[in-house]
C-alpha cells in the first residue's frame, strides 16, 4: 500500500523521518520520552553527545572507567548508549562503519571534539585519571588546580576525543 512504511531494513527511514537500525528500531529512542520537557524557546535541549569508534569494546571499557553504565551489549552491536546517574544527556557510541553508512563517508579522527564531566570532589578527578592512566589511556593534562577554582584534567578516549574532568576546589 502506498504511504505505509514497509519492513525496516538497514538504511530505512522511519515514519518520523529518523534513520532506523537494521532491527527496525530508532537508535535514539532508547525507550525515552523525547517530548520537549525542559526545552528552550527554540524547542531544543541537548539530548545526546555522540562519538564513533573503530573498536567498540575499547571505547565502552574507557567510558565505563569514567562511570558510564551501558546496557548489556555484544560485539555485533553497532550502537550503544548510556547516561551518568540516569539523567542528563546520553553518551552514544556508534561503530565507525555504522557512521560511515549514515553519512556516506568514513568518520575523520577527532582533532578537537571535547566535553566535560563534573566530578563530586577533587579526589574523584585524581582517582579517575589515575585509573585511566593505569589502564593505558592517554592523559592529555594531568590533574591540576586551575586558577578559576577547579581541579581539572583532560584525558583522551581510544579514538582521540578529549574529555575534561573537573570538580570545585
Automatic annotation (TrEMBL):
- Its domain of life reads Bacteria
* Region feature Disordered, mapped onto this chain: 1-38
VOC domain: which residues?
45-168
Give TM segment ranges. Answer: none
Name of the protein: Glyoxalase-like domain-containing protein
List the Gene3D superfamilies hit by this protein, alphabetically.
Answer: 2,3-Dihydroxybiphenyl 1,2-Dioxygenase, domain 1
Q: Which PROSITE patterns match?
A: VOC (PS51819)
Amino acid at each position: 500500500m502506498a504511504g505505509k512504511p514497509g519492513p525496516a531494513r538497514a538504511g530505512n527511514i522511519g515514519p518520523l523521518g529518523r534513520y532506523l537500525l537494521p532491527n527496525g528500531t530508532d537508535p535514539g529512542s532508547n525507550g525515552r520520552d523525547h517530548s520537549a520537557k525542559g526545552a528552550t524557546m527554540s524547542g531544543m535541549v541537548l539530548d545526546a553527545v555522540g562519538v564513533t569508534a573503530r573498536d567498540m569494546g575499547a571505547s565502552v571499557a574507557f567510558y565505563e572507567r569514567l562511570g558510564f553504565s551501558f546496557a548489556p551489549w555484544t560485539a555485533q552491536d553497532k550502537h550503544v548508549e548510556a547516561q551518568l546517574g540516569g539523567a542528563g544527556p546520553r553518551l552514544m557510541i556508534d561503530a565507525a562503519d555504522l557512521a560511515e553508512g549514515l553519512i556516506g563517508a568514513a568518520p575523520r579522527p577527532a582533532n578537537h571534539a571535547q566535553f566535560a564531566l563534573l566530578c563530586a570532589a577533587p579526589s574523584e578527578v585524581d582517582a579517575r585519571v589515575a585509573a585511566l592512566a593505569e589502564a593505558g589511556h592517554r592523559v592529555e593534562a594531568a590533574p591540576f588546580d586551575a586558577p578559576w577554582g577547579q581541579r581539572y584534567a583532560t584525558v583522551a578516549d581510544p579514538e582521540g576525543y578529549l574529555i575534561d574532568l573537573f570538580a570545585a576546589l
